[in-house]
Amino acid sequence: MPVEWIIPAARGAYNNRQVALSTWEKLITKILGPKYRIGFVGPGGIGKTVLLDHMTGAAFKDGYEAPGQSRKAEAGKAKANGSRFAVVVAPGQQSGPQIETYNKIFDSEDPIDGVVFVAGNGFVTARDEHAAEVNMSLGYDTISKWRDLNLQAELEILEEVCRLIRASKQKSRKPKWILVAVTKVDLFYGNIEDARRYYSPHLGSEFAEKLNRLRESVGHDNLSWDATPVCSLLDSFVWGNEVVESSLSKEDRDHYLSQFVTLLGSFCR
Ligand SMILES: Nc1nc2c(ncn2[C@@H]2O[C@H](COP(=O)(O)OP(=O)(O)OP(=O)(O)O)[C@@H](O)[C@H]2O)c(=O)[nH]1
Ligand SMILES: [Mg+2]
Q: Does residue 60 sit within a domain?
């Protein structure tokens, strides 16, 4: 399915949350239950938990508040027509619980079917004030410098995920795919073309090349990958004295969520 990075003038069926959710529910009944298991990985503060909450519908309930830093593995709790939503999210912070979750996700005895690598174009939300201050004092005192640092760290995390996938594939045939969910697109929609060039499979970026090399090493037919823009919580982004406002509407967000979920479904077929 071709990924659309720009919001089309006519959003078609995806123009409200209800449609987004019912699309998702139909999809989960098809793809999940005991049959498919998906692991979410990626940097801390990038939006993995919040994305999961939007997929399960938890985020659309009254009084929803964005969670803090995840300390342990999280599982999708949604049920649709009796099927369980089989997603496990690894905490982004390097820690014992992260290693345990990776062991679960990339367990060659009982591997997951697919991986969602949540990336964010450098817009990492820092939730540890002390760490943020340390980074500021080290010179990462503008959003531009903070994003560059995070993009570099994201590449390192991707490298590690590729290593884990390679090891899992040597012993089992899974995971079969990796989907890069480029989230927080509401913060950089004005420069979305740059993000498309950086994350898309065939445009030669360092990011794409890591995944293309992984695919070559495990055999082209044994692993698919693609990248799609998405967003979930329309929050402004603050770093030091700078702020980037969220620039998309809820309808735009629902469009991206629906595209993400539909793409996930096409990978699970
Ligand atoms: N603008 C915008 N902000 C977002 C979006 N998704 C998440 N955020 C912000 O990013 C913060 C972190 O999101 P989380 O989902 O908790 O991040 P995480 O990847 O689970 O982080 P860890 O639990 O540390 O691994 C949220 O509290 C929001 O403020 C998005 O799509 N757009
Ligand atoms: Mg989390």
A: yes
**Domain range for 123:** 25-267
- The yes-or-no verdict on residue 19 having pLDDT over 90 is no
Residues with CB under 6 A from ligand 1: 44-50, 66-67, 69-70, 91-93, 125, 183-184, 186-187, 231-235, 237, 246
Judge if pTM exceeds 0.90: yes
| 203 belongs to a structural domain | yes
Total domains, the chain? 1
165 domain-assigned: yes
* Atom 30 of ligand 1, nearest CA residue: 184
Residue 35 has pLDDT above 70, yes or no: no
Q: What is the CATH number of the domain that holds 181?
A: 3.40.50.300
Pocket test for ligand 1, best of 125, 236, 248 (most atoms within 8 A of CB): 125
Of 105, 112, 107, whose CA–CA distance to 90 is shortest?
A: 105
* Residue whose token pair is 């002390």: 130
